[in-house]
Amino acid sequence: MCFNSFFFLFFFMLINFFFFVYFIMNGLSVFFEWEIISFNSMSIVMSILLDWMSLLFMMFVSLISSVVIFYSKSYMNSELNLNRLIILVLMFVFSMVLLIISPNLISILLGWDGLGLISYCLVIYYQNLKSYNAGMLTALSNRIGDVMILMVICWIMNYGSWNYIFYFDFMKNDYVMFIISFMIIIAAMTKSAQIPFSSWLPAAMAAPTPVSALVHSSTLVTAGVYLLIRFNYLLIDMFFFKVLLFLSILTMFMSGISANYEFDLKKIIALSTLSQLGLMMSILSLGFPDIAFFHLLTHAMFKALLFMCAGVIIHMMNDIQDIRYMGGLSLYIPLTSLCLNISNLSLCGIPFLSGFYSKDLILEMVSFNSFNLMVFILFYLSTGLTVFYTFRLIMYVMISDFNLMMIYNLYDEDYIMLNSMFVLLFMSLLSGSFLSWFIFFYPYMIYLPFNLKLMVIYVSILGSILGFMVSNMGIYSLNKLLLSYNLSSFLCLMWFMPNLSTYGLSYIYLNFSQILFKNIDMGWSEIYSGKGIFNILKNYSVFYNIYQMNNFKIYLFSFILWFMILFIFFFI
Amino acid sequence: MLIYDIWFLFIYMFFLGNLIFVSKNKHLFVVLLSLEFIVLSIFFFFFVLLIFIDYDMYMLMVFLVFSVCEGSLGLSILVSMIRSYGNDYFQSFSML
Fold first, then answer.
1. Which residues cross the membrane (chain B) (predicted)?
2. What contacts A511, CB < 8 A, 6 or more positions away?
3. How many domains does chain B have?
4. ipTM above 0.90, yes or no
5. How many domains does chain A have?
């Protein structure tokens, strides 16, 4: 099953690649349309849009999913029901492809809902309590986005069909389009885990690691960004887009800080995904959709690679995900630490790896166009924080001493996992330059003063030095920042958003329902049904029994009574 | 008290006999005695009635024979009940 789906998806990827090259070289865009029903002014059509953006995205999705399925053949080989996981992953890829190729809100809803539901099934795959909680948080946060898209479907029926791409320039100043854009932005915010809804992404790390590599690095969380890229012509002058800018910059900053306090390997990677998503959303809301798309694709490559390396490390540490137990791994697993290093440095934006092309372009565009001071500061601070937690992770995992056991034997020779990582390594090295040559027809004109141009390098070097210094923990070292307990718990626990999303929303209702339960369910409704009727039946049946154990003569007395009545009525 | 007429005496005796018949007693014998009392009242009324119809008293004798048979039947039921239960207490019967 693994090999079949791997070959199928790889072949699909090659088809997509060739069509992408053909389409983008000839400026071609194909639109299939099947008209199902046409009422008076309302037409229901099923459409498929194939232009270079959807083909490129489909190529990347199928490449990552084929590599992940191949990887999970060895990662989850002790799993009895591996076929279920593979089928779920294939259904996920199908929903994603449906989302990518559709210019029609109904098929976007099918893909979107499919993504949410299948990611729930994948998160609860290991059926323990933590997975159940995480799955509930994931599913319900995504559900808000589904509701928003349903309402957009209702509102856009106002215009006659569900093909939204025809209505952008035409209806831009309409009130209905204002409401539609508001709801679409909220839907994208829930899917891509921006600030009010960002608690599900670290919690969803309860899923198996190959699933995290596919879902939470490149496909599910970028569905929101992709939707906003498609809707970009509509949203670009709207007010709420600027609110999105504010929230996504805060997301980027918040997750960068929280990743510095985390000691769980997968959670650090999840928070770095969240930070990069904030970066994508913010550059999108500044008005550059193609740069956002570029960063989406390169980020997919190195983040999936990072998750797969984390999977190998977790396997090696006997399923321990805590980085305080790890150290010195670069000496023992050279190939995996090669992949880990390259993906980490690509994440930081080290020159000429793939992340550099997208990230550096974003930062230079932010510096070149005139924006807020807060936007500027938070962008560069978040870039510095990215380097900070990356280098802290490298120090903890690869450079310190090994903390788990005294005698150890770590080996790296699982060739299935290594081969799948090498495919992504190749792409992670080259996809930056490859994509920038393909999708940008002309380079962006950027002219910056010298120090501003090197600002990226300054914050990166500062972040790396801080990362080294913070992770030099010995036995006697005291982390003075943790002495201010309130501040560091605020920063560490993701600005209390998981607590707000789970405990804060349900506390009032659970409290109230406890009162209701005690008073009504175990109180009054026991008297009026249930035990009350039982008591009535019990007591009165004793009476009935006594009542019926009387004399026959009582029955006969009724005759005398009748006689007396007759006597009274007829003789007086 | 209501003795304006002989007829009222009959009503009175009959009704009282029925009342004793339906009352809750301890012994079955009381029920049989009340039946005999009813028979006696009817006999009395029958006698007074037949005086006004030209003194034809033979019907009265037929009635007396039947009532004596009924009384003896009742007594035989009483005897069989005493022989099976040992007493004639009425509490063993219930409406069910």
1. 6-22, 29-53, 59-82
2. none
3. 1
4. no
5. 2
